[in-house]
TrEMBL record:
The lineage of its organism: Eukaryota, Viridiplantae, Streptophyta, Embryophyta, Tracheophyta. InterPro entries: DNA/RNA_pol_sf. PANTHER family: GAG-POL-RELATED RETROTRANSPOSON (PTHR11439), RLK (RECEPTOR-LIKE PROTEIN KINASE) 8, PUTATIVE-RELATED (PTHR11439:SF455). This is Uncharacterized protein. SUPFAM superfamilies: DNA/RNA polymerases (SSF56672). It comes from Erythroxylum novogranatense.
Length: 150
């Protein structure tokens, strides 16, 4: 990965990962180890949280397309190695943002809800999780993401 080309985003916007497409990779232990390290890194790098969440959903049987997604995250990290959390003196107002992708998982049609909490301009908490139940509409998925934010 030292000589790999860098990318500007941690995930491909057109690729939908599935648990059943592609072939199994020869060394799933390496996949699990790297994704585990990325989960640890996502505690201070909120920009990779969603992509790592998606990659970690396939730990039981990683396929070649999942491995490609993990390598893309690593190429993104190579390009953004100077990124991190910056805490500045700012106002004490609390801001919360939430979003969801309705039926984003093509395997079980569950949505992924995310939120980010700020005090002034400082990011203090974030999350990206697959919702427990299938939402019947995009509005329902957004309401569930909003409820987890609150």
């Amino acid at each position: 990965m030292q000589d790999a080309n860098t990318v500007s985003t941690p995930a491909c916007t057109t690729l939908k990962l599935s648990a059943f497409s592609g072939t199994s990779i020869p060394n799933p232990t390496l996949y699990r180890s790297i994704v585990g390290g990325l989960q640890y890194l996502s505690m201070t790098r909120s920009d990779i949280s969603f992509s790592v969440n998606k990659a970690s959903q396939f730990m039981h049987d990683p396929r070649d397309q999942h491995w490609q997604a993990v390598k893309r995250i690593l190429r993104y990290l190579k390009a953004t190695s100077a990124y991190g959390l910056l805490i500045k003196k700012s106002s004490t107002q609390l801001f919360a943002y939430s979003d969801s992708d309705w039926a984003g998982s093509i395997d079980d049609r569950k949505s992924t809800g995310s939120y980010a909490l700020f005090v002034g301009c400082n990011l203090i908490s974030w999350s990206s999780k697959k919702q427990r139940t299938v939402a019947r509409s995009s509005t329902e998925a957004e309401y569930r993401a909003l409820a987890s934010t609150v």
